[in-house]
Amino acid sequence: TDKKITLLGLGAMGTALARTWLAAGYELTVWNRTASRAEPLAAEGAAVAASAAEAVAASPVVVACLLDDASVGEALADAGLAGKDLVNITTGTPAQARARSDWATARGARYLDGGIMAVPPMIGVPEAGAYVFYSGSEALFEERRDALAVPAAARYVGGDAGSAALHDVALLSAMMGMFGGISHAFALMRGTGVPPKETAALLVEWLTAMAGYANGMAAQLESGDYTLGVTSNLAMMVEGNATLLRTAEEQGVSAELLTPYMGLMERLLADGRGAESAAGVVDLLRKG
Ligand code: NDP
Known about the structure:
The chain is an alpha/beta fold and 288 residues long. The protein has twelve helices and eight strands. Helices cover 50% and strands 13% of the residues. The chain is elongated and about 65 Å long.
């Protein structure tokens, strides 16, 4: 039974996960709402269950990789979860994860929630750096760690079932800001004769160099001293923002992705904090 796994959901991500367990010699049972998506995996050796309940019954460990939390509730509505280890790596919010944990525990299962930090082509490719945040039952995590680590590295972030989702969403949210900035930069450079791939190379180099400043912000947030090690103070940055906005206007580019962040920096400056870094923005956001 050590090598038996059930996987619910054969979308792009579920299918990628499934292949890694099959390749590693696991006895895999799969179920997908649209049955035809299971056919290629059946040909590769997976057992295909006719219903989610039948799939759950087949293995001690049940991994769910469905669209959203509602689809997990729907798929598992009449499955027998008593004694099962439910690992839900469907993306959701921290509160959804905690509620799903209570729901599964009330049905007699142990529960582990997960947030996948990868896109499907990174799954099963160790050098791609994919990993999954896990939180919830530590006993489940420790006992099933080997199986969980087959498709991507496994990182446990605590007993609060919502912790994995929070970590996942924090990183995705940071990525949104990054791609917002990247979109603005491409818009500025578009039509100027500089090939997009040259702009891309510059962006990757610059953003990689700048990302390390998250460590400086962390030191400031921990010490409460937002002047600690400041290399670019707010007074200077707010001046610089005016140049960014004027350039956008000159190039005929909307600055709508930049102005919300700049507005928060201006509020700090108006509050007399020009010698600090922009770390105070974190507090403005927390206070609403
Ligand atoms: P897909 O859209 O490719 O697949 C969605 C899956 O959910 C399908 O198996 C679909 O079944 C199933 N599903 C949807 N609604 C229901 C329902 N009501 N009941 C039962 N099954 C349902 O998504 P992915 O595979 O890409 O994503 C799966 C999860 O992985 C999501 O939570 C996503 O956020 C997460 N993830 C995905 C990443 C990616 O890059 N793809 C990256 C990181 C996380 P059917 O075939 O019948 O439609």
